[in-house]
Amino acid sequence: MSAPPSSPRAPDAQSPTREAAQVFLRRPAALAGLVLFALIVGLSLLGPVLYEADPFDIASAPLTPPWSSEAWLGSDQQGRDVLTGLVYGGRATLAVGATAAGIAVLIGVTVGALAGYFGGVVDEMLMRIAEFFQVLPALLFAMVLATLFSPSLVVISLAIGVVSWPPTARLTRAEFLKLRELDFVAAERVIGASTGRILWKAILPNALPPLIVSATFAIGTAILFEASLSFLGLGDPNRMSWGLMIGAGRSYMLTCWWAVTFPGLMIFLAVLAISLIGDGLNDALNPKLRERR
Amino acid sequence: MALAAFVLRRFLYAAGLVLAVLVLNFVLIRLAPGDPTETLAGQMGGMTEEIRTELRQAYGLDLPMLQQLGIYVGRILRGDLGYSYFFNLPVTSLILERMPATILLLLASLTVSVTLGTTLGVLASRRPQGLLSQLITVGSVVGYSAPVFWTGMLLVILFASVFPILPVSGIRSAAVSQGALRDALDVARHLVLPALSLSFVQMAQYSRLTRASMLDVLGADYIRTARAKGLGESSVFFKHALRNAILPVVTIIGLQFGNMLAGAIVVETVFNWPGLGRLAFDSVLRRDYPTLLGLLFFSSLLVIVANQMTDLAYRFVDPRIKAG
Amino acid sequence: MLLASAAVAQEKRGGTLVMGQSVPTAQFNNAVASGTGVMVPGAQLFASPLMHDESWNPKPYLAERWEIGADALSVTLHLRKDAVFHDGKPVTSEDVAFSILAIRDNHPFNTMLRPVERVDTPDPHTAIIRLKSPHPAILYAMGPPLMPILPKHVYGDGKPIKQHPNNARNVVGSGPFRLVDVKPGDQFVLERFDKFFIPGKPYLDRIIVKSYPDSQTSILEFEAGRLHIQPFFNRVLELERAKGNAQLGVTGKGYEAVGGINWLLFNNKKKPFDDIRVRQAIAHAIDKNFIVKALHKGLSKAATGPIHSGFPQYSPDVTAYPYDLKKAEQLLEAAGLKKGADGIRLKLTCDYYPGDEDGQKRLAEYMKPALKRVGIDVEVRAPADFAAWAKRMADKDFDISMDAAFAWGDPVIGVNRTYLSSNIRPLVFTNNAQYVNPKVDELLATAERESDQAKRKALYAEFQRIVTADVPLYWLTELPYHTIYNKKVQNVPTTIWGTASPMMDVWLAD
């Protein structure tokens, strides 16, 4: 996630975007990631529409092994169908990932932008807060939050978001520190643009490339995070998710390996796809790296 | 003089952070809905009003807020992290008892992941387009993306049923001591799988970082100069490039500490490793708030210390910082 | 006390028994805590005044003899003169007096010794327990899991006994084993106490008690021959697997005094569960046979009423609610609950006590399809954790809920609390059905003091008849607790307390 800074560009640079897209699409790994991600999102969004079932229902005899006609991927200790769980569980997992990453990016960009642009006392204070959240062991803190407030998707997303914003804040701050000194920002100031306009309209678009990369990775991290919490028994018990399936199957894994292996594989593939996309974006949006390859 | 001032400043700053963690801890208990005494009722198999009142007093739940905070901070400064009613032990001794197991696990997996990770990263940077490099790159993305508990569980399933050659649970066999050497070997055998599963993620990170850092350094001017001076390629590579490229890797070890602790919670749970992570999991299951908050405080403290040490180490290692 | 082939075999001395536990032992002092994690090791470390056999008969242990006063207001214990604590000091009546009062004042089972007024010690080997009212339950409260005799010179040093430093380490008792090593959260080692007061016992040199928080690991260790015995096992899946292994034995004996029952709790104060016909209808709609045979694979036993069938006070003469969907529907119609257009006549939520998957969660989940058949739509409210469930119970914020309780030796200790109207309190494990029947209150109060066993039994039989007719809750199964053991283990403990009594007769065959 240590994306080196990009070179500053004027706000509406069309060609670099196209160029970046070309670089991205020429990388087989990134392309594979994109396709995989599209498949997973497609399955999670369309699957429940096309295939109607209750993932909590007892669909077949408990502990039916996979590759059988009544349960293709087997059933868990309660007789719940693993395949149905995979189809229905993706939404919650992806939603938590996206929401938590969204929260982290929102807080991180806001804090980082203010700190980087204003500097001085504001910077000092905000960075102290960021550092405070960075020394809190993220998983443990999220566990405490989810334990104290019973675990629902909202609490889990908030807990993950709250512990994962500092890296984004640091990155944003660095970009803003650098960009605020540049000519086109000075020009905005001269024509009397408001601070808000300078921050969001002038600087932010130029700081976007590394932030996009960072946000992409943040989604992957958040998904892993949700999965870990669910595995530890702190998932939302009323919403099927891949993490919940693993958490429920954990104490049966030696008899019923399929109930943990398949949802784990889905999480792995989702995060892998996101990581590949992130790597591709990093290369594409980072001209310095690009030259070398 | 400048160094002493620097150290003092860092220390004061760290102390501020510790205090902030304490206040946060305190606020968290108060924010929690419900009453921790409810949980204790279950563990005691029943409960009376008298026990409840007694517990509320023991927790100090009946005093004014600020006074409670004062008492809380005072206690912690004396090394008293509270009392675990579930384990019937002071939280401090509980944590200290479980710490060696976790430290062993962390050190083992740190050694494995740093050595293997940097080696792979260096190898990958020698020929960035080569097959080996591609393989290593793909491998590290895979390692980074696989959930720790999932790889751990796959290892358990594999070694429990398919190749039962390594223990998949606990830290030692159920046996009385058979001499220091055999005991150590026994623990080492139990350590293999948990340390490996914790290493995968870390290894991926170190190899990615080393590779990127090496490529960065290899493109720098002074390497070009070294090459221009006619130094041998391996001399350039190892003497000049590696030494500089390893620097960010060293600093990341300290910063990774928090992540490793997170990994330890999950890995210790999968492998029933009786350390701090397993303790955290058990405390979550039993809603043992004093232990959970004690652990949060204690691990924050560890991270703060690790970060400060990294900062200091960095100052000693990197000449550029000293100059500036 | 013998099981399997022990009758022919010759006891062999020595050896190390490896015992598994699923609940880690936090501390060892069972004078101040309950639960299997403390009662099992506590019974090895501390001796108690009495023991009990398989048929509920009290047997001498620390007390050679005992007499109950003619007015039933005193119990005189005559102690053995040769008993010593692990630190070599003799066990005296002072220690007995100290322990009984400490238990009365600190043990979570507060009804267990409530009538004890004081303990007199006329000489070092005689202790006279003075009671405010007759208390027949005390014969069981003096057993190994409930009445450890603590050395006064260690635990009476003024430090708060619940957090006494010798509870978790350096435990001093007078039982057959002493604590030599503790690896917290992992294992502890008990070693033969050479000066144990019963000559020649125990047979084993050592017991290593190892925590297996995960029952899958236990079964792997059993299969590898590394684990010898694990009591209080209630996971159906692993029990089944153990039964299929020729090296392993499985027994349900040794849990009679624990007396655990899983039941369905009705919120009797909430509509429509205040109507007995609705409660009866739900009872008729539940197929206990399916629960026992299919869900528990025959490992549990159907419960018939508030008292476990292993108890001497148990009576089979109760109102039963056979599985009868037609009758259930009639009762619901009569109660005015008509089916809507969607075939649903009533929507309700069902909670469960988290922690026992087979006994609680799976039964709660079974309610959904079962009650659907009579037009009741059940939403299972998965509790986030114990505290969340306990709060719902305490606040009476539920329709129906799965629940369970252990009786621990006598109805006074663990049964009364669920049915006494005086025990309707904002706490978990109290009378949360909010059941009020003055006749029941009176019966229980009389039975608590009735010293004549036959009369007492009749009172409890009457209690069981009334309560099952009122059906404030519906009893589903007895807890499927089992001991898994390697067949090398001889004399597997099968008294009413099972492994929560001293394992001095256990030995290992080659």
Write structural notes for this entry.
The complex is a heterotrimer of chains A (293), B (324) and C (510). Chain A is mostly helical and 293 residues long. Chain A has helices at residues 14-26, 28-50, 82-118, 120-135, 138-148, 153-164, 166-179, 183-190, 195-231, 242-249, 258-284, 287-292. Chain A has 12 helices and no strands. The model of chain A is unreliable at 1-13 (pLDDT under 50). Chain B has helices at residues 2-31, 36-43, 49-59, 65-77, 91-126, 131-145, 148-162, 180-218, 221-228, 233-255, 257-270, 276-286, 289-317, 319-323; strands at 83-84, 89-90. The model of chain B is unreliable at 42-46 (pLDDT under 50). Helices cover 27% and strands 21% of the residues of chain C. Chains B and C meet through helix 2, helix 3, strand 1, helix 5 and helix 12 of B and strand 10, helix 6 and helix 12 of C.
Output the structural class of chain A: mainly alpha
Oligomer: heterotrimer
Global outline of chain B? globular
Quick one: how many beta strands of chain A?
0
Mean pLDDT of chain B: 80
Taking the alpha carbons of the first and last residues of chain B, their distance comes to 15 Å
CA gyration radius of chain A, whole angstroms = 22 Å
How much is the radius of gyration of chain B in Å?
A: 24 Å
Number of helices of chain A: 12
Helix count, DSSP H or I runs of 4 or more residues of chain B: 14
Tell me the layout of helices and strands.
The complex is a heterotrimer of chains A (293), B (324) and C (510).
Chain A lengths: L13 H13 L1 H23 L31 H37 L1 H16 L2 H11 L4 H12 L1 H14 L3 H8 L4 H37 L10 H8 L8 H27 L2 H6 L1
Chain B lengths: L1 H30 L4 H8 L5 H11 L5 H13 L5 E2 L4 E2 H36 L4 H15 L2 H15 L17 H39 L2 H8 L4 H23 L1 H14 L5 H11 L2 H29 L1 H5 L1
Antiparallel strand pairs in B: 1-2
Chain C lengths: L15 E6 L14 H10 L4 E3 L5 E3 L2 E6 L5 E6 L13 H14 L9 E8 L2 E6 L6 H4 L10 H4 L9 H4 L8 E7 L3 E6 L13 E6 L3 H9 L5 E5 L2 H8 L4 E4 L9 E6 L9 H10 L2 H8 L5 E2 L22 H10 L11 E6 L5 H16 L3 E5 L5 H9 L5 E6 L5 H4 L23 H12 L3 H18 L2 E6 L3 E5 L2 E2 L16 E2 L2
Parallel strand pairs in C: 1-10, 15-16, 15-17
Antiparallel strand pairs in C: 2-3, 4-5, 5-7, 6-7, 8-9, 9-10, 11-19, 12-19, 13-17, 13-18, 14-18, 20-21
